[in-house]
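Marked as duplicate of an earlier ticket. Keeping the data here for the record.
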Amino acid sequence: MAWVLVVAAGLLEVVWSVGMKYTEGFTRLWPSLLTGAGIAGSMLLLAQAARTLPIGTAYGVWVGMGAAGAAIVGMALLGEPLSVARVFFVVLLVVAVVGLKATSGR
């Protein structure tokens, strides 16, 4: 169950990180409220997962999912530059996340 919480927290991290683009420096009310709710939800889910998982592993997977997910959404939907190098480094992030999970012993 803890890994489900980490994955949900990672997905929420992607949502809030991409949401920041739409807050315009937290000057727009609804995008700011939704982004804030995403941040709070992501943190709460990570905190619950960290009760049973090693924090280094849970945090590393959470951050990796957020970073890779935000980069993918940025390239796929937001018109950010798409290059072989960027895709390569996102793949490295995903490999690192899978490696952390695989070696967590849980």
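See parent ticket for discussion. Residues 2-102 form one domain.
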